[in-house]
Design brief:
Length: about 180
């Protein structure tokens, strides 16, 4: 076998009987199967087994299971990066015709996503002064679906009055006294 082919070979070379107290770090995106019949493509690794790293490696699933347990949650979703996490929040709360508020000091790619893909999907994202506090109520509309807080602000480090923003949002969005 050519040395370059040997470098690409996925066949394990080291022993596999090592037992560690911690979950090893699995970085692979592609999972190797013994045969086609073994492949199950789904999000439920407990039932289907592993199929693709994007759906979760043993490392990510161990982390998400532990977070869910600590938070008394049914499940926790671990995403591969910051942009995926930002998109997940928008897509969980917003749809075409929604309005979202984002502080001027938000992470740059967040604002780029707002101007690009979100605008293209009919989601309006309006920037606000991160030090606005309870005055944010003047920006909340009938179609406001999300108020993004990022404290401290990215690069500029403003500390938002999150309790005041939450109180104003609850009062305005749910018409509380």
């Amino acid at each position: 076998m050519d040395w370059r082919t040997k470098l690409l070979s996925p066949k394990p070379k080291a022993r596999r009987d090592y037992q560690s107290l911690v979950t090893p770090v699995y970085r692979g995106s592609t999972v190797v199967f013994d045969n086609q019949a073994s492949v199950r493509d789904g999000w439920d690794q407990a039932a289907d087994g592993y199929s693709y790293g994007l759906y979760g490696t043993p490392t990510a699933l161990e982390l998400s299971t532990r977070i869910a347990e600590i938070e008394n949650a049914h499940r926790t979703l671990i995403v591969p990066g910051g942009q995926a996490a930002i998109a997940l929040v928008y897509f969980a709360y917003c749809k075409a015709g929604s309005h979202a508020l984002v502080p001027y000091s938000a992470y740059g790619p967040n604002k780029e996503m707002a101007e690009g893909i979100l605008r293209g999907l009919g989601i309006e994202v309006e920037a606000y002064d991160p030090l606005i506090g309870d005055k944010i109520s003047s920006l909340i509309r009938e179609n406001t679906a999300l108020i993004w807080c990022e404290s401290p602000g990215s690069v500029t480090m403003e500390i938002q009055d999150v309790p005041a923003i939450v109180k104003a949002a609850h009062k305005k969005m749910w018409r509380l006294p």
